[in-house]
Amino acid sequence: MHICLFDEGHHALEPLALTRPVFDLLCGQTTLAAKQVRHFAPCQVGVLVRPHLAALYRLQHPTIRVNDQTWLRSEPAILVNGRWLPPEHFALSIGGPCLGMVGEEIAYAVVGADRLEYCSPQTLADCLDTWKRTLPQHAAGGRLITYPWDLVNNNAEQLCLDFRGAGLSARHGTQEQRLPHVVGPAEKLLVDPTARIDPLVIADTTQGPVVIDRGAVVTAFTRLEGPCYIGPFTHVVGAKIRAGTTLGPHCRIGGEVEASIVHGYSNKYHDGFLGHAYVGEWVNLGAGTNNSDLRNDYGEVSVSIHGQPVATGLTKVGCFIGDHTKTGLGTLFNTGTNVGIFCNLLPTGPLAPKYVPSFTNWWTGKLRENGNFAQLLETARTVMQRRGCAVTDAHAALYRHVFEETALDRRHTYREVEQRQLRRSA
Hints:
Blueprint: E1 2-6, E2 26-27, E3 30-31, H1 32-40, E4 45-48, H2 51-60, E5 65-66, H3 69-72, E6 77-81, E7 84-85, E8 98-102, E9 105-111, H4 124-134, E10 137-139, E11 143-144, H5 148-153, H6 155-165, E12 181-183, E13 189-191, E14 196-197, E15 202-204, E16 210-212, E17 217-218, E18 223-225, E19 228-230, E20 235-236, E21 240-241, E22 245-247, E23 252-253, E24 256-258, E25 261-264, E26 267-268, E27 273-275, E28 278-281, E29 284-285, E30 290-291, E31 302-305, E32 308-311, E33 319-321, E34 326-327, E35 332-333, E36 337-339, E37 344-345, E38 355-356, E39 360-363, E40 366-369, H7 373-385, H8 393-405, H9 407-425
Parallel strand pairs: 1-4, 1-6, 4-5, 8-10, 12-15, 13-16, 14-17, 15-18, 16-19, 17-20, 18-21, 19-22, 20-23, 21-24, 22-25, 23-26, 24-27, 25-28, 28-33, 29-34, 30-35, 33-36, 34-37, 36-38, 37-39
Antiparallel strand pairs: 2-3, 6-9, 7-11, 8-9, 31-32, 39-40
């Protein structure tokens, strides 16, 4: 059977899902897609993504079928909801078409080729609705990711499951390689032989595994508390990495990071606190950038999704920052802050707004559109070249699409801010 991951429910996962399919989001050591593919172990993998994501996804994943309806309809398939976080133990016994459910939502659909004749990214919602009314259902297990904080809240558990599920055992590299001083079980430390560990590094495995991937660099006076994961070629510079943290590839991380996910290619090089947060790619957090992840009254935190407050049911929630956003010296984020892509925040003392739409500047306490798209693209090109990456035509087209798609949200947010200011002044 084919397996086809579908991109659904992305609106509630913005800004993180503005520039990638939902199944490319990280939770634990890997993306959701890697977990889903591992559970089904298919011969061929395809995806159904939003049309404006297709060109870049093909470029980044040349072996995967992208929005290929001929391939999808060629034989029976398992269509997997890209937001599904599978259970640790999973066995699928296929006795015919059926749906795996998490509550009232579809986790995956096992369907014959005849039911895929009209299935495409544009018609997927109708297909899912039809299958839900006509196919037998059973419990799939696991859970569905709905909001960005769901990824953060499940990260520590997934780090432990990924360590066990991959059958990992402690590797101590070459005889010449220096290893951290271990507090806790030594078998829960995994260091790739190509990683570089300086003296005076501590790995605390008492609460979970510590994994340091290939080419990573961990400098002196760093403390790594498990469960945590240091991704390929990431530099951790004299930092405190608290439990429940995932650092993706090619990051530069200093200061204190707790229970957070940094997707990759992002900088938090200087001192400052990042807690219970998810940071996208190509983000730069200036020195002294801090976020609150706990209200002073220990109350429930709400997060603005498209400008509308959503109750999280949690007391520990940090910030969510989209790709290519930058903060200046001393930026302060309140609990539950949501910042879009290509934003630029220059603080003047008070807390940043809790909701900053994509392509927005926050300067001198005011929100303004960051509307010079050509300049933004040139800055992105400079930033990416520093890590050996290029802005392709596919990148440019995707960013242009999101710029236009989010214009209404920006105008609506600016108008609401102006109206609030007028009401206060009256």
